[in-house]
Amino acid sequence: MGLNIFEKIIISHGIDLNQQELHLVPDQVLTQDATATPVFLQVEAMGLSEVKPFVVSYLDHNTLQIDNKNPDDHLYLQGIAKKLGVHLSRPGNGICHQLHLENFVKPGGILLGSDSHTPTAGGAGMLGIGAGGLDVAVAIAGEPYFVPKPEVVGVKLIGELPLWSTAKDIILSILKEVTVKGGVGKVFEYFGEGVKTLSVYERATICNMGAEMGATSSLFPSDEITYSYLKSLGRQQDWLELKPDLDAQYEKVIEINLSGIEPMVALPHSPDNVKKVSELAGTPLFQVAIGSCTNSSYKDMAVAAGILKGKKIAENVSLVISPGSRRILSKMSETGVLKDLVDAGARILEATCGPCNGIGQAPAAGTNSLRTYNRNYQGRSGTKDANVFLASPETAAVSAIFGYITDPREMGDYPEVDIPENLSDNGNLLVFAQKKKEDQEVIKGPNIKPMPVGEPHERDLTLQAALIAGDNVSTDDILPGGANMLALRSNIPASVPFVFSRMDKEFSKKIDQLPKTWVVVGGDNYGQGSSREHAVMVPMSIGMKAVLAKSFARIYRKNLINYGVIPLSFVNSTDYDKISLGDVLLIADIKEQIKRPNVMLFNQTKGISIETYCSLSEREEDILLAGGLLNYVKNKLEWKD
Ligand code: MIC
Ligand code: SF4
Fold first, then answer.
1. Which of 109, 172, 195, 398 has the greatest number of beta carbons closer than 10 A?
2. Is residue 159 classed as helix, strand or coil in its secondary structure?
């Protein structure tokens, strides 16, 4: 029987494909500055003196330095990188996923990253998986990352995109069908004749937004197009051909005819709330933003410049552009792309995540912002009542000229876009670790506080329902991003006032009046979005012992277990209605019950029993019983010595 690409990568790494849980030992690991401090503090707490895989630490999110906090984190990350032998990308060098593609991605390899968009690497045939910081710390120690064996969905691409339709429109069309929860437990593997019509940039855009479906990963083959891409970066030696066998099997196949793809847009406040751009035409805009790890390649910039060349942006629109990397910015200045954008009225931002996660450029109250980014959860832009729409750079640039959402086909001729054959870079903001430097000074500034550690549970749990949440609650809802919050990623006590603040401003104050232990009740796909383990660490630090939801997003569920918080699901999802805010729930003998896997819970306030389950692998059970992964691994490493 033929193999698909996912299976080929797994088998080539000596991993047993017949297990229900795959034990992945990544070749490479990436971290980014908003999640990295806990990662490296945890690596230190494990007593590790040298990293095992190839590790790159990117300083890319927290580049807005309005006080000491972000620079404190950066100083720590720079010191610890040198000490442990970690490579480092300095602030200003660009966004982790774009940079990883440019500098390190290897077809056929496995990459684990403390960021949910790590699957971007799939654009060049590398299996990228996003994970919580603690899992990444453990992988840095050379231990495997455990992931439930995903279903592999084949996405067969046929035909060719019409002019003005783009990779962004492909993934938005898929999101519309699959939805933000439809990808959980799945890898999306793209194949078919249509693949050849897409560049690595376009493939990366598609893999990047696979994260919005909750997918474990997304993958494209590595072919002659991948070779040309790597060659343009001077990295052809890293190329490896990787294609599915002709008789490769997939659990399910979705067929997409590219010639039928139209310009699409995701409406507020979810990436799967997708319509045709033509249906939204005329929607007034306050802001247009081009960039983020989804659409910040040289091609994206050049297309926008081609459209804007010799034109002027509308008076009502602020156009902000953030290139994916310094290399791209430098090329843009060489080729005139930068001049065309600036002349049209664009505001050029640093090569960072920036507005994507609410770090600057928040829209005015009640206005509309059209962005080429990947997430439009309510409030993520920094303005709670702003409406964020997601679309391609083509739609964005054309709409910036008109001042309202415009079908890009209105422009007529598609601009000529030349991509330089040579995209090499001097690497001036990459610091390659020579080898570990034990005597390296590591400065921990006042913003860096110890990370909380989970605790083993009492025999019986009494939990008050502190929050009843709906479906698709994102980690941004649990613990927001944005400039204020990201500066506190190394300071858990200071983050407490922000927990659940998007859903209930007073939440952290109310929690003071509750009993010490509490539970959140959620709907489907609880914890979607980012990989930030802070969305578990912070509520856990003030008494959250369990989450009872209809279903969980993959990374969030794992983060709960990693901190010893019990992820419970309803056996009958209608039982969700049997719990009200403030109800007291009892779970007797939890340590025995989680082994079953059904867990009986008694709603003391209403006098009814509710059947839940907690399906855990044996290892996950041990982690929960140990009070979290750090305790579990520390015991294991000590035992090894
Ligand atoms: C995001 O896009 O939400 C982030 C910020 O990149 C997160 C990581 C984080 O919260 O630090 C992600 O996607 O994992
Ligand atoms: Fe950065 Fe946005 Fe990409 Fe997250 S999604 S890594 S914040 S650019």
1. 172
2. coil
From the CB of 356, is ligand 2 less than 6 Å away?
yes
- Altogether, the residues listed in the chain come to a count of 641
145 DSSP β-pair partners: 24
| Rg for the chain, CA atoms, rounded | 24
Picking from 136, 52, 54, 128, the residue whose alpha carbon sits closest to that of residue 87 is: 54
List all residues 6 or more positions away from 451 whose beta carbon is below 8 Å from its beta carbon.
Answer: 38, 41, 42, 45, 492, 537
Cα(33) to ligand 2 centroid in Å equals: 11
Residues 70 and 62 sit within 8 Å (Cβ to Cβ): yes
Is the full-model pTM beyond 0.85? yes
- Beta-carbon contacts of residue 184 (< 8 Å; ≥ 6 apart): 213, 214, 215, 525, 551, 553, 554
Measured CA to CA in angstroms, residue 568 lies from 239, 526, 600 at distances of 44, 11, 10
Expressed in angstroms and rounded, the spacing between residue 115 Cα and the centre of ligand 1 is 6
Alpha-helical (H) ranges within 152-276 are 167-178, 200-210, 224-232
What domains, with CATH codes, occur in the chain? Answer: 5-260 (3.30.499.10), 264-408 (3.30.499.10), 461-640 (3.20.19.10)
